[in-house]
Specification:
By secondary structure, this protein is an all-beta fold. The protein has one domain: Sandwich (Jelly Rolls). The chain has no helices and 10 strands. The strands form 5 sheets. A two-stranded antiparallel sheet has the order 1-4. Strand 7 and strand 8 form a beta hairpin. The protein is globular, with a radius of gyration of 16 Å. It starts with 11 loop residues before the first strand and ends in a 7-residue tail after the last strand.
Length: 153
């Protein structure tokens, strides 16, 4: 299946609504882990990393945000019929700790015509952290076409 939510296919992150990128007190987005008992901090990615489609997912290639839930609005390049949603997360074997408890658990997908809309719920899904690292979910209704907001550069 084609992935119309990729940047390479013309998709753009247009908003994170109230979800804020996690920044350190120094003002930089951070990804941290311990090495030899000392914390190490590295700049992290912007929300657009979510739609860049890296062929290999590595630790730190993520969008860190405050809190336990986040929102991301993606504008597609043209109207599509949405039938499936795929969520990728780092595989357990690529995790420095061997754990992937940072994986999103519950995912709600909405379709909307304008950024200011609440949108129509297309489906609610649960990512199984014991399953495959890439999981595809079929929407209950796949014949609805959602017109996307044009992206202005």
């Amino acid at each position: 299946m084609a992935d119309f939510a990729l940047e390479t296919h013309g998709a753009r992150v247009i908003s994170t609504r109230c979800s804020e990128t996690y920044y350190s007190s120094a003002g930089f987005p951070l990804f941290g882990f311990r090495r030899f008992g000392f914390p190490r901090w590295y700049p992290s990615e912007s929300p657009s990393i979510v739609i860049q489609g890296s062929p290999v997912l590595l630790a730190g290639q993520c969008w860190p945000f405050h809190g336990a839930q986040g929102t991301l609005l993606i504008s597609l390049s043209h109207p599509i019929t949405v039938s499936h949603v795929t969520l990728d997360h780092i595989p357990r074997y690529n995790s420095p700790t061997g754990r992937i408890d940072s994986a999103p658990r519950d995912l709600q997908v909405y379709g909307m015509r304008e950024e200011s809309e609440e949108g129509s719920l297309l489906g609610t899904f649960t990512y199984d952290e014991n399953g495959e690292s890439t999981q595809t979910f079929k929407l209950p209704i796949s014949s609805v076409v959602y017109v996307t907001r044009p992206y202005a550069k």
